[in-house]
Amino acid sequence: MERLKQIILAKGKVLSNTVLKVDAFLNHQIDPSLMEEIGKEFADRFADAGITKILTLESSGIAPAVMAGLVLKVPVVFARKRKSLTLTEHLYSAQVHSFTKQETNEISISQSFITQDDTVLIIDDFLANGQAVFGLIDILKQAKATIAGIGIVIEKSFQDGGKSIRNAGYRVESLARIAHLSDGNVTFLEEEN
Ligand code: 5GP
């Protein structure tokens, strides 16, 4: 997605050879107009997939997921990372090791919001080693839901997640694919240019 790539180049900060900071438009301050375009793009790519729900992970997946849900006219469920006083029983849960925080979280959703009748699109902000997506897949398998595919805003293609998830047979649609981060620069995959 050309506009997304231009914003990554203009406003993203390369923190190291593996971490890109996008606090200016996605992870802290949010650019609603960009999110709207991202939502439309995901909705377009999965238009014929029969999606009935979108599943994401709090908190940075929520903005793009809600925008896609608005266009597809389906509810958006976000898995929670913290135990909540109101989210106590009848849960589907999975363990997810966070790439950026270097800690393992249990993520959970209420069993009432996704069932075996659902066809689900997973959406997340970044794809690195795939831990977050595999955690969400684990939850959907527990719910016996159909997994239509995975929509990612920024895939770091030099890390293993994209390959592992595609090798496991899932459709992955990433709006920007980064070939490498080095010396403060972002290089996108050839096919994306
Ligand atoms: P994975 O689970 O695929 O290893 O990592 C994906 C998760 O880690 C995303 O949900 C995202 O929150 C976070 N993440 C991974 N890499 C980056 C990065 O380079 N920048 C930012 N801002 N978040 C990242």
From TrEMBL:
Endpoints of the signal sequence: none
EC main group: transferase
Binding-site list for 5-phospho-alpha-D-ribose 1-diphosphate: A128, N129, G130, Q131, A132
Pfam family, one: Pribosyltran
Catalysed reactions, as listed in the record: XMP + diphosphate = xanthine + 5-phospho-alpha-D-ribose 1-diphosphate
Metabolic or biological pathway: Purine metabolism; XMP biosynthesis via salvage pathway; XMP from xanthine: step 1/1
CDD domains given in the database record: PRTases_typeI
One BP annotation, GO: xanthine metabolic process
Quaternary structure annotation from Swiss-Prot or TrEMBL: Homodimer.
HAMAP family reported for this sequence: XPRTase
Protein name, UniProt field: Xanthine phosphoribosyltransferase
Organism: Virgibacillus dokdonensis
